[in-house]
Write a structure and sequence with these properties.
By secondary structure, the protein is mostly helical. It has one domain. The radius of gyration is 15 Å and the shape is elongated. The relative contact order is 0.14.
Length: 105
């Protein structure tokens, strides 16, 4: 791995730790599940799928439904970031595999 990729790998690893392992308003296990696409406890499942697969379709109504289910804005933010980062990292990993090994994503 060249120096540039190594430096970026360290930054990506730090971002993973910050989002998926640091203390927060929502349990790190829930954030890791949101990022990995694993099954989520209610009311998170449909919301995290939408963030991961078609984030442009997330609306105020989605957030309002989570609030109505008793979730705080801080919890919603953390789960949103975890799901979005998980989707981005999935794409990044696939791209790096394709560049490094000539594989198709």
């Amino acid at each position: 791995m060249d120096e540039s990729l190594a430096r970026h790998a360290e930054l990506v690893a730090a971002l993973r730790r910050a989002v998926f392992e640091s203390p927060g308003h929502i349990d790190p296990d829930v954030r890791r599940a949101a990022g990995s696409g694993a099954p989520m406890p209610q009311p998170w499942g449909p919301y995290t799928e939408k963030v991961r697969d078609c984030s442009y379709r997330v609306t105020d109504a989605d957030v309002d439904a989570l609030k109505a289910a008793g979730r705080s804005e801080e919890e919603i933010f953390e789960v949103t970031v975890a799901a979005a980062l998980g989707a981005a990292l999935h794409s990044l990993d696939a791209g790096l595999r394709a560049v490094e090994g000539g594989e198709q994503p």
